[in-house]
Amino acid sequence: MTATATATATAMPAATGGVSTRVVTGLKPTGRLHVGNYVGAVRPLLDLARSVGTQTLVFVADLHAMTVEHDPGRLRDQTRELAATLLACGLGDDATLFLQSAVPAHTGLAYLLECTAGYGEMARMIQFKEKAGAERGSARLSLLTYPTLMAADVLVYRADVVPVGDDQRQHLELTRTLARRFNARYGEVFTVPAAATPPSAARIRSLRDPAAKMGKSSSADGSVHLIDPPVRIAAAVRSAVTDLDPVLSYDPELRPGVANLAELLGALTGRTPHSALAGLRGAGALKAALTEVLVETLRPVRSRYAELVADPAELDRRMARGAAAAAALAAPTLAAVRAAMGIVDVGQASM
Length: 351
Prior knowledge:
This protein is mainly alpha-helical. It folds into 2 domains: 16-201 and 312-340, 3-Layer(aba) Sandwich (Rossmann fold); 205-309, Tyrosyl-Transfer RNA Synthetase, CATH 1.10.240. Helix content is 52%, strand content 7%. It has helices at residues 35-50, 72-89, 91-94, 105-114, 119-123, 126-135, 141-155, 169-186, 230-238, 256-269, 273-276, 282-310, 312-340, and strands at 21-27, 54-60, 96-99, 161-163, 194-196.
């Protein structure tokens, strides 16, 4: 699923290959990852990937970015940037990181799932209704059918756990429905995945508007991106909305700006928002402390990202290696689905 947040998953029934828990998630290349993504999604994924008995697969969901009008060159650039950023964070070390489009089993299974899904199920999806209504009849067909691709993203790996945010719950429920329906009609092939939900404390808001989510588009909207230089990080934090009370306290309702900074500082330093404010007086001190932590936390990410961008061949090798590993995991599932549905497998034709 193209989730933006995750949480530590509890142990699930055994996955294939001797792995106790298999986790699958994707991130869509629609903008630069920001510190909210890091706290809410990337860092928990790193923790999962390091967990004994857990196998974590993370993909860049470039195919999902094509359900609406897009610029091909921009999509290409954002796909590579997202892949490089995730690798720079360390997700390619203990997790399998790859491009969705590089594993044909995703689209192969998506069509077969379309053969088990109904039009009404697709048309009821909230995102389709909202976007199709806004585009007044010009919506792409892929916008209607892409929930089956999202289901295929998960089911092709027989995932046990899928990290989801609130906006993805409907898609996961459809995935579970399609898996159960297939298993009932054609035999037990799919694992029915469970959801892992993000911790509420990890939902970092815009620094300039604590009522809005932190966005991927630009630093001007109150975001701190993972590859921002220190000077830009400092400027973003300086512009953060706070208040004039020198006595700092954590009160999300009455002091949302201070609370947002306290939550981010606490999340980055492993403390509660209350304890993150201890010893600080005034918004200036809070902003200075947060700037220092952000710069130091993101320094190795920026450094590794620069290395990857300077060596595109290495980035391609890492992505190809991840795609090969993912394809090997997906192949048995796709073969089992094809056989269960009655597709004749004649093998490769010889020349």
